[in-house]
Amino acid sequence: MALQWMILTYVVAAEAAIALLLTLPAPKLLKSRIVSVVSLLLQPCMFVVPFAGFQLADIYWKNEHRLMCTSEICTAAERDRYEKSIYKAQRNVILCATACLLYWCIYRICKYFKHVESLEEVEKRYKKL
Fold first, then answer.
1. What angle do CA 95, 88, 9 make, to 5 degrees?
2. Which of 7, 44, 107, 125 registers the highest number of CB atoms within 10 A of its CB?
3. What CA–CA distance (Å, rounded) separates 29 from 32?
């Protein structure tokens, strides 16, 4: 069951690296090339959003059907195991939310850069007139 979390962790790390690359200052030609490549990659990488949503639904279902270990009957080892599973679930929720948020940020950065480029082209046309 840890494979999907490992994949999601790598995806979040890659998204963070791409977001950092997009926000670093670079020459205009290089920046436009990077944005065009990332824009081409955005649509196939859309799988991240439903994948993270499915993982969130899985966490919610497991949380609703988890055995509670809060009474005096539980041993210390059972209580530790219960708390560890709660911490893992919280970490995984943060990971899923981060994956979706970073994807949205990358999308908006690319869209913003393309909008700025189109406005610059319009400005150039008006200056030529």
1. 30
2. 107
3. 5
- 107 Rama class: left (phi>0) / alpha (psi -120 to 50) / beta: alpha
Cβ burial, residue 15 (10 Å; 0-12/13-18/19+): buried
Phi-psi region of 40 (alpha: psi -120 to 50; beta: other; left: phi over 0): alpha
Please tell me the distance from the alpha carbon of residue 29 to that of residue 106, in angstroms, as a whole number: 19
**What would the pLDDT profile of 56-66 be if each residue is shown by its tens digit?**
999 999 888 87
Encode pLDDT of 84-109 as tens digits. Answer: 888 999 999 999 999 999 999 999 99
Enter the tokens of residue 48: 């991240």
Q: Is 27 exposed, middle or buried (0-12, 13-18, 19+ CB in 10 A)?
A: exposed
pLDDT of amino acid 1: 59
What is d(CA 69, CA 80) in angstroms, rounded to the nearest whole number?
9
Token look-up 């082209």 returns 121
